[in-house]
Amino acid sequence: MAKAEIQNHQEIFSIDRAKSKHDLKLVSSLMTVFPESSYKVILDSGYAVEALTGGIISRNHSDLDLMLVVSQSEDITGIKQKFINVVNTLDTVKWVPLPSKTSWIWLREISHETVPNPYQLNTHILFSSGKSEAEGIIINSGHPFFFPVEERILTDQDGTKTRVLCPGLEYMLAAKIRLIEAYGNDPRPKDLLDMKRMMSERRYSEPDCLRYLETFYVNRFLLSSEEAKEKASEQISMVKLKIQSNAETGRIFHHV
């Protein structure tokens, strides 16, 4: 292996058991403190992909990404402070908030500047319209959209099982794809691995993924329906090509 490939492989597959156990325990505790009748604590990003594609922790996760769905009547400043207080009360790790966007809470382990691989918790606050459907909720963020939610079981390396909520498979893949542009259309190896795993699921529906991408491009970039459809198709084709042709990542896949 080349040096860069060895480093990527170690970063992805050297699982910190204590960290993943901590993260899942924190998620479970938050789901208890924030009852589903009023809130939804939803697993996002890498851990969500694990829950959707096998349900077992199989790679390292540098941070814990969550979504906290609240009602429109909630004051965002108040809910952010409440969340920070709850996390610091529940957890043995002591957290410090970093400056963040209005609808985000970025927490880092209080000694994050001096310890390697510090604990990180990133939470996106979403406002529900109050409407719910059988398999999800309606999020009101200027452009209301349907947000599919699935209940899953995620198992850590020691066999401990945790009940979690996570986005639907196709929505999660669309979310990963739409962020590729933030990396100059050069996806990180771990993101390519996650996208390959989701596309390989037997239940995966590409038309549904395309539909979520199209909605995002219409709402965020104000593209026409036809433009959004073309862009979504191009992005999925690009991801497939990257997965197929990226030699470095292809060798990483060989070890999965």
Account of the 3D structure:
By secondary structure, the chain is α+β, with helices and mostly antiparallel strands. It has two domains: 1-167, Beta Polymerase, domain 2 (2-Layer Sandwich), CATH 3.30.460; 168-256, no CATH class. Helix content is 46%, strand content 23%. The protein contains nine helices and eight strands. It has helices spanning 3-13, 17-33, 45-52, 76-90, 169-178, 189-200, 206-221, 225-245, 247-254, and strands spanning 40-44, 64-71, 95-98, 104-109, 120-133, 136-139, 145-155, 161-167. Strands 1, 2, 3, 4, 5, 6, 7 and 8 form an eight-stranded mixed beta sheet that branches. A hairpin with a 5-residue loop joins strand 3 and strand 4. The radius of gyration is 18 Å and the shape is globular. The two termini are 16 Å apart. The model is unreliable at 1-10 (pLDDT under 50).
Question: Gist?
Answer:
The protein has two domains: 1-167, Beta Polymerase, domain 2, CATH 3.30.460; 168-256, no CATH class. 46% of the residues lie in helices and 23% in strands.
Give the secondary structure arrangement, pairings included:
Layout lengths: L2 H11 L3 H17 L6 E5 H8 L11 E8 L4 H15 L4 E4 L5 E6 L10 E14 L2 E4 L5 E11 L5 E7 L1 H10 L10 H12 L5 H16 L3 H21 L1 H8 L2
Parallel strand pairs: 2-5
Antiparallel strand pairs: 1-2, 3-4, 4-5, 5-6, 6-7, 7-8
Helix pairs in contact: 3-5, 3-6, 5-6, 5-7, 6-8, 6-9, 7-8
Quaternary structure classification: single chain
User: What is the N-to-C succession of helices and strands?
Assistant: HHEHEHEEEEEEHHHHH
C-alpha termini separation: 16 Å
Q: Which whole number gives the mean pLDDT?
A: 87
Topology-level CATH name of the largest domain: Beta Polymerase, domain 2
Q: Count of DSSP helices?
A: 9
Strand content: 15-25%
CATH class of the largest domain: Alpha Beta
Helix percentage:
40-55%
Tell how many strands the DSSP assignment holds: 8
- Poorly predicted tracts of residues: 1-10
Overall tally of structural domains = 2
Principal-axes geometry comes out as globular
Sheet with the most strands, sense and barrel status:
8 strands, mixed
Give Rg in angstroms: 18 Å
Structural class: alpha+beta
